[in-house]
Amino acid sequence: MQTKKSFSYWQWRVIISSMIGYSMFYFVRKNFSFAMPVLSAEYGISNTDFGIILTLVGIIYGLSKFLNGFVADRFNARWHMVIGLTACVVLNFLFGWSDKISVMISGEPSGPDFIGTMVVVMGILLVLNNIFQGFGFPPCNRLLNHWIPPRELATKMSIWNTSHSIGAGILAVLCGYIVSSSGDWRLCFWIPGIIAAFGIIFIIITLRDTPKSVGLPELPDTKTELDENDSPAAYRAFVKKKVFLNPVIWVLAITDLFVYVVRFAVLDWGPTFLGKMSVPLSPHLAGWTIGIFEIAGCAGMLCAGWISDRFFAGKAHRVCAIEMGLVAICLVVLQLLPSTASPVLVLAILALAGFFLYGPQALLGVTASKHATKKAASSAVGLIGLMSYVSVLITGAGLGWFSDNFGWDHLFILMAGFAVVGGILCAFLWNIKNDGYIHD
Q1: Is the separation of the CB atoms in 163 and 20 below 8 Å?
Q2: What does the angle CA 123 – CA 125 – CA 131 come to, to the nearest 5 degrees?
Q3: What's the number of domains the chain is made of?
Q4: 439 located within any domain
Q5: Do 88 and 196 touch, CB atoms closer than 8 A?
Q6: Per-residue pLDDT tens for 357-409?
Q7: Interval 11-50: pLDDT, tens
Q8: For residue 18, is it within any domain?
């Protein structure tokens, strides 16, 4: 009884500590989207240039997430997160001085040479930032699969996944007010960076690794083909079988690509296209809109996880297929709204789309983790992360070029098409088994 009570305490401590820790990564990652309109107005940087940067850093982040998935399965999660977040905080402070750095390099305070140099400097700093951003999710995924039994994973991992929306939502509101009140893009990096610095201290104090690291037994009913003393060769063979040769993982990865196309279209370009609609929104209202999109996503994740375990016997992929269809419907409605539509109505429908979208965003990783087992869960999610960030080829340079040439008029119907394809792919997995563990 005492062991059970202690395990419950540590399980929730790890869930809550890693949630707060991971939300800090968003404070020093998604702030660039809110600086983009100010940088464009102040320096004349085009959407195409921004799109190229977003594409490059997204691919880098996907690769980092992929590689760190393999590291996370074998490394202490607390220190993995601390190293990554510390580097991101330092790079965000440097980004706030990117104009000064550009003057030092180009020798010009303005003009084409200065702007070209500044685009390169921003690109380099963002690439480095996204390399270390890949230190965030993989160790958290390792923790969750070591602390939460498979039968509870959809519900509790959905709770944990609200950390994405908490971090991005609070940041959206914060940066919206920063831009509206000061107009200084530098503060979009410095203020969140200070907050994230306190997050580093919080992780060090509160977070721990697996149950074994605090003297507790490992989870029951999670037997795999590897034991505690597995060799590197045995581990590689296990990962190859459970991840790279597993068709379920690949279908989930491709589906997640389409989920992220829709998600990043809103998160990366939302502050820009919401200000250019037929009923334009002010910067701080656009910030609230993206923030509410994330808040609705939190509620959607919680409901989707509970529904998966309560009504679908843990088959989370079934909920994903249904919700992607509902996302498509919301986006079509947004496309058909007349120019006289109230901004409040736009906000409400976009929030509903977020409610349905963030269920699949959380649960595809749950299904992948169950099928790869706790021994290779982060490796599987790393592969899915790599595929999902291929989406930036579409949402970064693709949408940047499209908006410069054709505007934003058909954005929502385009995103609805991606949502439909993602739902159809996920539906192919309807009857797969629950997990990849060995059951006696």
Answers
A1: yes
A2: 100
A3: 1
A4: no
A5: yes
A6: 988 988 898 899 888 888 888 889 888 888 887 887 787 777 777 777 776 66
A7: 999 999 999 999 999 999 888 888 888 888 888 887 778 8
A8: yes
